[in-house]
Amino acid sequence: MGPATARLGVLIAVALLSASFVPPATARGRGRRGGHGPVNPLVAGICSRTPFPEVCRLTAGRHAAKYHVIDNQAVLNMQVDAFAKRTAAARKFVARASRRGSPAQTQALSFCDTMYMNTQDTIGAAQRAITFKDKGTAKIMLQLAVQDFQSCDRPFQQASIPNPMLKIDGELNQMANNCMQLANMM
Question: Whole-model pTM above 0.90?
Fold first, then answer.
């Protein structure tokens, strides 16, 4: 056996040994909504350290099957992905609600749509920062995202009209707080 073959053998042994220390994403990673299976226990463990662990498990857990390794970074990516999708769903809800609202409500919802679009942009910037493990920028972008969607409430309060976005904004706030806590774990 020559030196190149011996080095290859050592490299393979090191790779196999290293793989045994990295937890694989073996469970399905689905939430309980919609009759899906249990949440990956690694995701659940990391989510338990967030301010809203159930929200984290139900949203981030749905994305676990996409990841070969489940760690803090992966769960952060899962939660940010879920946050982005929920923000997109909020924009769709705004479009539907605008068609049946009063003129004042429609104007306020138009403002919300702009704020949610800004939120999507800042989430994208946070995702890029996370990719580069830039914790500071990720946290700033996530905080800006919170400010953007929270601004949606202002025109409803000023006009003293009901805000159909309150529940969605509450969910987004919980997801954003989870993202910020997960970013602290990076």
Answer: no
